[in-house]
Structures are given as structure tokens and as C-alpha cells.
């Protein structure tokens, strides 16, 4: 149960960084309003962009007339599909171009959902741009639309895409299935035949919005030599540079993307969206800096979690041993590919990696519909699989009369077991596992033995329930094979300043999680400095080594590992120089407490030199800047495990569910900074509870219009809904493959929460609701009151 | 006579970079007005600073009352000596703190020249700040002033500084001599005794202004965590960071200085001035961003070349062989140390390194006066020594009846000879020398044989003259000993982009000379790329390795060498990866024409891979970013040599001198980019001609007021004065210690010009004027017409 680690003997406490509760270095900049987000950037003569969007879910652009719009004073540039590059581009940052699905056009000649881009205007003010948008005349040829994944795969359904390019190859599609993902082990039919009990259910999980506070914003400054300076709400500056260059058909180095902090992202900025190439093209066309800041409505319609319908069949022996597991998912990717295949692959991987089951099969259909496109979202297919699986564990436990904690303890995968890291191609093995710890300790903390008593509370108005959700996730996308369909490498530069402090440069994006603060702690730990003495520099794609993207719970595990490697190179240089100064063998020198000290000398004055003194001597004697770069790929992932025990109250009159208590147990290996990990766990839980109870982007099945793209009508789980009785604890594990024993957390914090709520409500009301979110209406219906 | 080199066989011409006439990459940004200088920076709520300056040349501040000023709406912060740190600080960037003279205070309690800082105000607008400055009430105790160096060293002269700190040691001064620099070889008295002829003269050289177009400007943004973001017209971002931190008494890493292009500098931005700490202190006090942009008058009074009175005594044999040389200089450093000692040391070094003389002595007195402070200026003591020495060479030639070219050819130092690189401590040896080439070829090009005919032109109104000046300079401040009183190291980072282009990051400042373009060519040459494929990234002190400062004709020789080292590390990585791709030994692979090719295969398709393909494969296979850093000190300097032959017309009625023709011969080793070197030679000549003919900051010897701190009254040598008949040529030398054979040029371009003019005017009018500048008044006086 790791908390802040004590400092080792002889080292002042503030020099012990791993496990220390250090506030984020950017917190003061954010709270004072000093930190500049993309939306704060003002450039002289900057134009504002507005977009003309399709009112139809499926329509070909017959004719488009911008002549009236162009004539409006202040309008500087307009683009339509006629001005835009005609090649399709791909959005995903983590896939090499060779494997990336490409079905987007900078401006398409056919609208595929209500809101798809038809034209874009850059003008001196947003109002002028909006007036110009209104003045564009479009003649649409309305086409029949597929607004539902099952309608979309029915025979004769209107075709949304004829082709999709995958790298340089082109797929000609038969219908609206982008890809079907299949994976499995054993013989599922035989497994079910061998089972003593088989249950099968169909679950639906909703189209949740990522809901970052910051709206998508892009600023592009065109330089006179044709290069573009770009600031963008993006999870990857290098990924954006590459995809934007390919969308525009220009060399990568013509674009320089600047690193900024994000006001949240949760996957909504995981890939390039359609707005970045539009802004860049308008900058090139107008020759002036431009800004495109989406409205809240536009932003909410631009990304979402992939909604899915999931059929799950589970077979078990009487003692609870799982023997067969089969999942079939219909995943709605919306009008464009948008990570749909990769999310579905991962969904299969997460499904197959939760429990030891000899016979498993996963089939995932990735389906185009004429609805707003989905995107990556914290968990990346995991909650979609977790809710059915964890529901089934409870249902099976009930059926077999086994305690739900116990049935999980019998079946969970553990040290040495194989798992699927990111879909069918990537197998890895569990190296550290604290599942037993977190399950048993969590059960005690929540008072699990009260659960049985909650079954059958009769007609009480408020019914209590306790539920458990458990999740498996991986840290990053590493794999043993260097030729991978997912990129997973990072780079860092560490430099010692002449005052003995250090600078760290990494292209990694901090979405608000504090991952860069964690990096500073890792570097400080290697160098024997205080975390506050490691300054994280701002950078851009011109200056920084490649870092793939902030995603997949990889920041600490992958990028942090590479920052550690760079710091170790600097450490070696420091000990070498300390050896020169102290006339000692560098191999005998250790760093700690801000000093380099010859081992075994007890810190005698002539056997110890401060880092500052080394740096100043290096300057004085012109030994050069103490600086190193590391750039490495991850060859492993690290599976991390979480569970959430929740206690809820269900108001049987209103159908409203209140979360009363949360116990969150996490095996994240060594905790680098408890403040930050706790932040992830609190935030992840809120997002999961919203998924379970409230949140769903609703698309009208007749018109294709999004009904609630705003926070008046789309209800998120807010601080008013959040539960203050929230107990966070950690397993006492250490992951050898991670930096200082650390694993990931960002997504796991989210994966298990919805399952816990669904199971707790079932405990309270005796009905297992399978259609998320569990709105009051659905709860009342389950109670037979509607 | 190197011009553009032909491309080697088999490599497309654009891939051969060294010697190629490539336009500066920043030219288009400057000419389109897109490039941002410091003065273009606008920050929200930024305050403007105005400074209250002393009207007295020497006065103690008895009392200062800011109460009325503070009460003016819009005034946000005022500082006086009462608010400022009480420790003295040093200005120089290239000296380690341990050796730096420290006699400046952020705001002194005693004004030492008319214009010295008394208080500073930050307010919402410049007008408000100016009104507040006017409202500050000061009671001065006027002190007697020393307005002339000889007055200042007379007994009983008023004392300007009581103490000067040198690093941590404090000198208690007896009078107004900061330091006396002495150096010598042999036995000068014996040398003069052995001489057949001895001449002795006293020369005065003026207080020239550097005259960059851009005025000094500092923007400081205080961050909520106490750090300062700084943009400044400075020749060294790292030097400024260090000196500013020390002036404020805060750790270096609390300051981040951003790299910008300069609109000229010429040494005026070589050191920190007094304005940077004032701006930083006002930013810290107000908590708001501030800007301090000097007025033209303030800027012109803030720096100048050190004026000097130089007595020179030269002894020679009848055949012209020099046997004894003695120089004594009284150098006026103004009210503060301001590089005065180092300039004087260098002056001695340049003096002693021009000609082979067995017995030499240099004595330089660095004297404080109550006049505006001097500063580093292109040549750094060289023109002050060059004018007397080159005048004497002509005078001696005349006396002995030897041709001036011939007497120089007999005596110049050459390959293998020792020289003093930067004052008495640094001896180096000449490795390449093209003096004979440039002197003999230059004489032919100018038509030297006409010179004799110009002697005695009788009473013609316009008299023609030809003159020669020759100069010696060093490239950078390197030395064999790592413990040096001058820092001379640099760092560079080179990175390959995934499209096969490269990025170069260096903290080096481009003052407008194109030194960064030269770096791009060097990196391109190493990597076999085109210069336009090497992008120079903008950086800051947080992110970049240390680079000491743009000075001392070091950019190409020192920083360029380090950029080459970084590029070579990247080259080695590229050949390693190409070896993997081509299944070949990396040692057999050569880069060129944008490709890596196995030697001896004639570029067969399976034996060659483009850099872009290597980079893309490295991404696809996750081999990491191809990137390397180098940081090294220079252990040698490289002496470079120039000469200028000029032909002038002297109007004997007006005294006006016109430059009719220039022949500039330079031994700069291998020319990296002729366009850039020619630019240096043209600009350096104009600055030298202004020094010889026009330019002098005049300080009233009664009041201490500067009489002409503006371009109406201070006449610089403009494009109207410049000579279009300008013949530039280069010696065919190659310096083994330099990158691709290159040496420096920046200062040499300036050092020889004034001497050439003085000698040409003497040829024309038969009188050798020894008091620069040769204004019409002095010419007429020499002609006996005044």
C-alpha cells in the first residue's frame, strides 16, 4: 500500500522524488491564468475561420457558389472541395503512414453526416466569417442515409464510402463495414459444450463525449518561405506535423508544431481532426495567420467514444472456473474511420486479457454510419468490453452462488500469463500483478460483507447497493517486434544548467494529467536532485525528438522510461566529471542530495561535490554543456490492474442513482507521484460514472441531427454529482520493466467505474440493466415503474 | 582565389554546399517584415519603462523622492538605488564570473556620467512613464569630474570608483586606472639602440558608435513561479542569462532568454548593459511584463569603441627589417569597466602579432573617466592598434625609400610564427597564411605602381592617393589550456526529420551576418544534403547547449566547428542505419547527393538509399530519432589576414575625402559562402572608413554632455558615401583547424580599412594625419588652409 516513500538515510527528504507528493509545476501558471493555451494566442492580422456544415446526413455537393460570400468585405479566403487536395488522408497519430486508414478529404465532395464540412471561410472577424458562411449557396443532392449500425449493414443500405485507402493500398468496400476484427484461442464451441452453465446477454454502451473544458483550436501562421507555424490542441505535436503534411501534400519539415498544455483531451485530441488541414489550407491561401476555434457544439460533435452493441456469451464450470467466452461487437465508428478499427482490435484484446479462459473468441464489426464520427477516448475500447464482462462475472456469480469477489479471484490473469496488449498481433506476458491485493483489500475497505444484505430491500424508497468493477489495461503499445503497426517510441533531452538544476525537453503533451511533472521527478531521482530543480522546457517539432502521442497510458511507462535513459546518460557524464574534480573513479561516485559523492566516504568534504559545483567547474574549465538525448522504442507493455468498489443509493421514486462511497484499488506498480495518480483515479471515476449513469450524445434516427451537443442537454458527471467519500489505495507492486517500477494509470482509472455502478445498481434493485447509461427513466423501467 | 566551388563529379551541384553562394534563409523573413525582432514583441498588459538619467557627470544622490511620480495614474513600479541589489555586477559574457570585473550596480547611488541611471519607471504607456520620470525629485551632491583620461590620471583627480570587484576579490583603486596591461618580448631598449632608424608618433583614435539599426530593447515577462522569460537584443542568450542572474542575485535557471535575430550589433550587444537588470527588476516588482526600448540618444550613449591615445615608437634596420616596437596606449573606458581591460589586452596582442619584431613592448592604461561607457566593438582594440602600426609602416617605408608593400612583405608574421591570440596569456602559432598572396595580388589589382606618381600633385584641387592597410586577427578565443580567463565553447544539436531534412539548434546569435546560414551549409555538407534542407530552429537558454557569445570572429570557426561535430555524429548514425537497410558495412557508406551509398558500387539501386528513406525506415522500425548533440571548446584560434588597398580623392578646397576604389584581399581560409563573406567585407570597410573619416561621439569637456548622440549630428559612413568600385578577392588557403578549412572574417573586415584611408590621404596630400577621424577641418588644417 504505497504512499509517499520515506527518504533513505542520509538524504534530505526533498531529494527523494519517487513517491513524493509534489505539486505540478504548471499548477501555479494555470491557476494564475498566466499559462497560454492555444486559444490565448493572438497574432497580428490573424483571421478567424468559420465552417459551413452540411444540414443533411448524406448528400452530394452538386454545385457550390461562393461569389456572394467572397464579396463581403473582410473575407480573405474561402475553400470548398474544389480548392482542396483530392487525395484522402488519415487521422491517426500512432499508426505509421503505411498502415493508416485514409478516408478523409480536406473538404469532401459528399457530406456524410449532419455537420460534415462543406466549405470554410477565413475573415477578419468571426462575425464576418459567419456572415460569409451563410452567404455560400450550395445545391445538395440528398442521398438516403444509414443512421444506425444495424441499418447500415442491412442489405441494400446506402453506401457511405466506396473505398478506403490503407497506406498505399485501396480497399473497395462492399457495404458499410470498414473492417471486421477477429481473434481467438482454443475451440469456443467445445468450451461452451464443456461448460456447466452458459449465460448470454446483449449490452449497449453509449456515444459518450470526451468533454475537455478546452474547445479544439488551431492557429496557423504561414511564413514567407512557405513554412507553417502551428499551435493546436493536440495530443501529439509530431503526429500532427506528419498527418497535416500528408493531408496537404507537403514535406513534414515545412510544418513546425509548438508544444502547448491542453485543457483536457481524453482522446479527443488523439488524432488529427478535419479542422487542422482546413486551417492550414486557409493560411496558405490567404497568406495570413488564421485561427479556427470550434464552438462548443462543433467540438462536441467532432469526437466521441465509439458506441457499441455487444453480445457476450460466457460458459463456466460449477466451481466458477471460466471455460468459454465469446464476444461479438457492432461498433459504430460514425461517418469516418476515426480509430474505429484500432479501438475494436483493442476491445478484443482487453476482452481476452481479463480472465484465464481456455476458449475465447472475439468478433468486432467496425461500421460506418451517417452520424458524427467517433474517436479515441480514454480506455480505447476497454469500457465497451468491461461493462459486459464485469456484468457477466456478477451474473455468473449470482447464478452459481459464488461471491463476486471470489469468482474474479479464481479466474483473473496473473503473473506469467499471456495477454493481448493491443489487439490480435501483440502478445505480452504479465510481469507484475497486484489483483489479489486490491480485490481483497478493497472488499474489506468497502465493507463487502454488507452486499448480500442489500439484495431484496423490499419497497424502501432509497435502496442501497454495492458493486465491483475490475479492469485490465496495458501501458503503451510496445512490442518485441520493431516492425509494428503501432508506433511506440519517445525521445527526451536532459541538460544540466550552470546552477546545478536540470532542463528536460520532450515533445510529450501534458493534457492536464501532470505526466510532465512525473517526468521531472524521474529525472530528479536519477540525478539526485529535487523535483523542483528539474525544469520542463517548452519545445516544438523542429527542436524535439519524436514522441508518438500522449495516449494508451504510456506517458510514464514509455516516455518516462526514455527520460530516465537520457537522465542516466547525464548522470554518467556527471559522475565522470565529478571523478575528475575529486580525483576518483567515476564508478565509485553516486549522486544524491544534490551532490556527487565517493561511495563509502561518508560524505567527507574532499570526497563530495555539489552538482552545481560540477556544472560551474564544467563551465569554467570549458568541459562543455552536460547534456544528453535518448530516443528509444518500448519493447514491452506493462499490464496494470484496477478495481472499484462503489456503494450507491437508488431513489426508487425518481430513478436517480447517487454514488455514496468509492473504494478504488490500483496496481500501477511504484507510484511516482500520489497526487497525480489520485487525480487520475478521481477524474477517471467521474468520467466512468457519467458513462454509466448520464452521458450520451443522441443522434436523431430520422434526421441525423445531433440533439444534445451542449452541456445544457448533454449531462456530464460534475463535481456536484461526485462522491466525497473516495478511498484510494495502491497495491504494493514494482514493475521491473517500468521506470522506477512504474506502470500506467490514465485509462485504467476509467475502465472499471461503469461496471461497478451497473453491478451496484443491480445489487440495489435486483435488476441488471444492460443498456447504458442508467438514466432515471431506465431505472424506473427496470423497477417496473414506467 | 576561391569563388564558388564546382560540385565534385557525380553529385548534383546543389548538394555541394561549401563555397556555394546560397542566400540567407532569413532574408525572405526580413524583407517581408515577417521576422520578429525584440521590439516587435507585444505581451498583454506589458508596461513600458523610462529611465531618469543624471544631468551631472559626477554626483552623489543625496535624496530621491518618488512620491509624486508614484501617484501618477498608470505608474506601476519605480526603482531607485534604494530598491536595487547592493552588490556590484559585471557585464562581460565571455569571461567566467571568477575573472569578471564588477563595478556596475543595478542602480548606483552615485552618477558617474551624464546619462547614468538614477531611477527607472514602469508604466502603462511610454508617455506616462516619461511624465513619472520628470516628476521624480532628486537632490544631487555635485562632485568634480574627470572628463579626459589624462586629467583622470593627474594627481588629485576626482576618484570615479573606489573599488572594483574581480570575481570574488576586491581591488581598492588608488586613482582612476582600472588596470595597466603590460606585455613584451626581448629587450626593447637594446632593440632601439640596434636600430638604424627610429620613428615615434602619437595617434588619437575616436569614440566611434557601433550604430546598429536596431536600438537596444528588452522584454521581460515575469512568471507566477518567479521565473523570468526574457527577449533581448543580445549577442549571447546564455551570457545574458548568467550575468542577469548574478546582477539580480537569483539562480541562472530562474531566467530563460529567447534567441532572436539582431538588427546589427557590432559589439554593442556583446555584454550585458545596465538596462537588462533594470527591466528585470521592474518586472519582478510590478509582476507584469515590461519593455525597455532605448531611444536613439540613449542607445548611442550606451556603448562605443574605446577611444585611445597611442604613442608608437618603431625601430628598423636600413633594409626595412623591424627590430624594436613599443606602444603605449591610454584607453578611455568611460565611467565603467566595460571590457576596457580585455580590449586593451587584445590591443597589445594585435600590436605584437602583426610583424616579426624581436623586441616588443606594449603598455596599456585602462582609465576611468566621467564619460559614457565604451564597449566591445568589431575589432576589439584592433583598429586602435592598427592605425598607428600601419601608419608607421608607411612612414618607415617612406623614410627608408622602400615600397610600403615590400616593407610589409619583409616583416609580416607567417606560418609557424607565434602570435598573441587574446592578450598576453594566449600564445598560438600560425597554421595557414595567405599574406603574400593578398598583398601582391592586391597591389596589382589596385594599380599600386601609380602610387609614387601621386606624391606631389602640386596645387590641383582634387588630389588622388592610394593607400594600404593590412590587418591580423584571430578566430575566436580558443587556447590549449582548459582553464582560461576567456570562455570559448559552443554546443549544437542536429536532428534528422522524417522527410530527410535536418534541423540545427544552436544558441548562437545571428546579428545579421548570416553566420547561421553558414552553419546550415556546414551541416548540409557533412550530411550530403542541400543547404536549404537544413533548417535552423529557434531556441532559448532552457533548451540549448551553451554557446558563449557571437564575438571575436568565432561563429564559423568555433561554433561552426561544433555544429560540424554534431552533424558528424548524425552522419555516423545515418551510415549505421543505412548499413542495416542495405546490409552493408557502415564504414563503406558515404553520404552525398541526399543519399547514403555503398562506396564503389556506382550508386546501384540496391546499394543506395536516400536520407529520407533512412529517416522513414527509422520511424517505421522505431529506431528512434536520429539526433545528436556536440559541445566542445576551441583549443586553437586561427589567425586570418586581410588587406585593403584604397584609392581616394581629396578635395583640397573643402577637405572632403572620397573613396574611389577599394581592393579587399582576405585570407579567411576556405570561404563557406562568398555572399556572406563579401557582405562582411563591404560592411566592415564602410565602418572602417567612417572611423577614419567621419565618426566620433563628442563629449563636452566642460559639462560632460554628449553633443551628438543622434544621426543628424553624428555622421556615419552611409550608402551614399560608399564606393561602388569594390573588388573582393580571397587567398587560396585552407586552415586545417577550421571547419572545412574556414577561418573568421567579421572583425578583420573592419580592422584594416581606417589605416588604408589614412595612408591614402597621406599619399594624396603629403601629410600623415595622426588624429582620427580625418574630418574636412583636419584635412584643411594639414594642408595649411586653416
UniProtKB/TrEMBL annotation, chains A, B:
SUPFAM superfamilies recorded: CO dehydrogenase molybdoprotein N-domain-like, Molybdenum cofactor-binding domain
Alphabetized InterPro entries for the sequence: Ald_Oxase/Xan_DH_a/b (IPR000674), Ald_Oxase/Xan_DH_a/b_sf (IPR036856), Ald_Oxase/xanthine_DH-like (IPR016208), AldOxase/xan_DH_MoCoBD1 (IPR008274), AldOxase/xan_DH_MoCoBD2 (IPR046867), AldOxase/xan_DH_Mopterin-bd_sf (IPR037165)
Gene Ontology terms, MF aspect: iron ion binding; oxidoreductase activity
Organism: Amycolatopsis jiangsuensis
Pfam family, one: MoCoBD_1
Protein's name according to its UniProt entry: CO/xanthine dehydrogenase Mo-binding subunit
Domain Aldehyde oxidase/xanthine dehydrogenase a/b hammerhead span(s) in chain numbering: 32-144
Source taxon at top rank: Bacteria
UniProt-listed PANTHER family: XANTHINE DEHYDROGENASE, XANTHINE DEHYDROGENASE SUBUNIT D-RELATED
Amino acid at each position: 500500500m504505497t504512499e509517499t516513500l520515506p527518504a533513505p538515510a542520509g538524504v534530505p527528504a526533498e531529494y527523494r522524488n519517487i513517491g513524493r507528493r509534489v505539486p505540478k509545476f504548471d499548477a501555479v501558471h494555470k491557476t494564475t491564468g498566466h499559462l497560454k493555451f492555444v486559444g490565448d494566442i493572438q497574432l497580428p492580422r490573424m483571421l478567424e475561420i468559420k465552417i459551413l456544415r452540411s444540414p443533411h446526413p448524406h448528400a452530394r455537393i452538386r454545385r457550390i457558389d461562393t461569389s456572394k460570400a467572397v464579396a463581403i468585405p473582410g473575407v480573405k479566403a474561402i475553400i470548398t472541395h474544389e480548392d482542396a487536395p483530392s487525395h484522402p488522408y488519415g487521422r491517426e497519430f500512432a499508426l505509421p503512414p503505411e498502415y493508416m486508414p485514409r478516408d478523409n478529404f480536406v473538404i469532401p465532395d459528399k457530406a456524410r453526416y449532419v455537420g460534415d464540412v462543406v466549405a470554410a471561410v477565413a475573415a477578419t472577424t468571426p462575425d464576418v466569417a459567419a456572415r460569409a458562411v451563410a452567404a455560400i449557396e450550395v445545391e445538395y443532392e440528398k442521398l438516403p442515409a444509414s443512421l444506425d449500425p444495424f441499418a447500415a449493414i442491412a442489405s441494400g443500405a446506402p453506401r457511405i464510402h466506396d473505398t478506403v485507402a490503407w497506406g498505399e493500398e485501396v480497399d473497395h468496400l462492399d457495404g458499410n463495414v470498414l473492417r471486421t476484427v477477429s481473434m481467438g484461442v482454443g475451440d469456443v464451441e467445445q468450451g461452451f459444450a464443456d461448460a456447466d452453465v452458459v449465460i448470454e446477454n446483449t449490452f449497449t454502451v453509449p456515444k459518450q463525449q470526451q468533454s475537455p473544458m478546452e474547445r479544439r483550436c488551431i492557429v496557423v501562421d504561414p511564413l514567407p518561405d512557405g513554412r507553417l507555424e502551428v499551435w493546436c490542441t493536440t495530443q501529439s505535436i509530431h503526429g500532427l506535423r506528419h498527418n497535416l503534411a500528408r493531408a496537404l501534400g507537403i514535406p513534414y519539415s515545412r510544418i513546425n508544431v509548438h508544444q502547448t498544455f491542453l485543457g483536457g483531451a481524453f482522446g479527443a485530441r488523439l488524432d488529427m481532426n478535419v479542422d487542422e488541414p482546413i486551417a492550414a489550407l486557409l493560411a496558405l491561401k490567404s497568406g495570413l495567420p488564421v485561427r479556427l476555434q470550434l464552438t462548443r457544439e462543433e467540438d462536441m460533435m467532432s469526437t466521441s467514444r465509439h458506441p457499441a452493441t455487444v453480445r457476450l456469451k460466457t460458459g463456466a464450470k460449477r466451481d466458477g472456473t471460466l471455460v468459454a467466452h465469446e464476444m461479438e461487437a457492432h461498433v459504430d465508428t460514425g461517418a469516418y474511420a476515426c480509430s474505429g478499427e484500432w479501438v475494436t482490435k483493442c476491445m478484443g484484446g482487453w476482452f481476452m486479457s481479463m480472465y484465464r479462459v481456455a476458449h475465447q473468441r472475439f468478433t468486432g464489426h467496425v461500421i460506418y454510419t451517417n452520424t458524427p464520427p467517433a474517436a479515441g477516448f480514454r480506455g480505447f475500447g476497454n469500457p465497451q468490453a468491461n461493462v459486459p464482462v464485469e456484468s457477466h462475472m456478477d451474473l455468473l456469480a449470482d447464478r452459481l452462488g459464488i461471491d463476486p469477489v471470489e469468482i474474479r479471484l479464481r479466474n483473473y490473469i496473473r503473473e506469467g500469463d499471456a495477454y493481448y496488449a493491443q489487439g490480435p498481433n501483440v502478445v505480452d506476458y504479465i510481469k507484475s500483478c497486484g489483483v489479489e491485493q486490491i480485490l481483497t483489500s478493497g472488499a474489506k475497505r468497502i465493507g463487502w460483507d454488507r452486499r448480500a444484505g442489500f439484495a431484496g430491500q423490499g419497497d424502501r424508497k432509497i435502496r442501497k447497493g454495492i458493486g465491483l468493477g475490475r479492469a485490465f489495461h496495458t501501458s503503451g503499445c510496445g512490442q518485441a517486434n520493431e516492425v509494428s503497426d503501432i508506433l511506440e517510441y519517445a525521445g527526451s533531452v536532459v541538460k544540466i544548467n550552470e546552477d546545478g538544476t536540470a532542463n528536460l525537453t520532450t515533445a510529450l503533451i501534458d493534457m492536464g494529467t501532470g505526466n510532465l511533472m512525473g517526468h521531472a521527478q524521474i529525472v530528479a531521482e536519477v540525478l539526485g536532485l529535487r523535483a523542483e530543480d528539474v525544469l520542463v522546457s517548452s519545445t516544438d517539432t523542429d527542436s524535439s525528438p519524436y514522441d508518438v502521442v500522449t495516449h494508451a497510458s504510456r506517458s510514464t511507462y514509455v516516455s518516462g522510461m526514455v527520460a530516465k535513459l537520457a537522465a542516466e546518460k547525464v548522470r554518467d557524464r556527471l559522475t565522470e566529471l565529478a571523478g575528475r574534480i575529486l580525483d576518483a573513479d567515476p564508478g565509485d561516485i553516486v549522486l544524491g542530495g544534490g551532490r556527487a559523492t565517493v561511495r563509502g566516504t561518508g560524505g567527507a568534504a574532499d570526497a563530495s561535490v555539489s552538482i552545481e559545483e560540477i556544472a560551474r567547474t564544467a563551465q569554467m574549465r570549458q568541459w562543455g554543456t552536460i547534456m544528453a538525448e535518448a530516443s528509444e522504442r518500448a519493447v514491452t507493455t506493462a499490464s496494470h490492474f484496477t478495481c472499484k468498489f462503489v456503494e450507491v443509493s437508488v431513489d426508487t421514486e425518481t430513478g436517480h442513482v447517487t454514488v455514496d462511497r468509492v473504494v478504488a484499488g490500483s496496481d500501477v506498480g511504484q507510484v511516482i507521484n500520489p497526487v497525480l495518480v489520485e487525480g487520475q483515479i478521481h477524474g477517471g471515476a467521474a468520467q466512468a460514472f457519467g458513462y454509466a449513469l448520464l452521458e450520451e450524445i443522441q443522434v436523431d434516427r430520422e434526421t441525423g441531427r445531433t440533439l444534445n451537443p451542449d452541456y445544457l442537454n448533454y449531462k456530464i458527471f460534475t463535481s456536484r454529482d461526485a462522491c466525497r467519500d473516495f478511498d484510494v489505495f495502491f497495491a504494493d507492486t514494482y514493475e521491473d520493466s517500468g521506470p522506477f517500477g512504474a506502470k500506467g494509470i490514465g485509462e485504467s482509472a476509467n475502465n472499471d467505474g461503469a461496471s461497478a455502478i451497473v453491478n451496484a445498481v443491480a445489487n440495489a434493485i435486483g435488476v441488471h440493466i444492460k443498456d447504458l447509461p442508467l438514466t432515471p427513466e431506465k431505472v424506473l423501467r427496470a423497477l417496473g415503474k414506467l
